[in-house]
Design a protein that fits this description.
Length: 127
Amino acid sequence: MKVVNDFKLAIRRPNGDIQEIEVGQAVHPDSVESVIIPFSAPWSSSGPEVREVPLQEVAGQERPMGQETIYNGIVEEDVPNARQTFKIIAELSEYPSGSMTLYQLRHTEQVSYADISDLVGYSQINL
């Protein structure tokens, strides 16, 4: 999988508001309902696409300032007209407790990262 270390995504808050976040930016875990992941695909004629996915707790470990918890937002879908799937994983870390930080995006070769800022009207997304 390819790794992207400098990117922006968006989160949907429990009240429905959408907020753009970038690598290293911390948010409170209770303020994140889902993550909105933009991507470009060669089969999409209408430009970049977005998917909204829930966060899943995938790992945890004890560290000097308490528990670290890793969360993933995962998009996994079939490639149209092919016997392949594509996958995009947004990784967030909660450490220390109460501070969730976006830190990495990984994707398969069938798709590429699209900057959420380039999506016209992304704040009006109804997914």
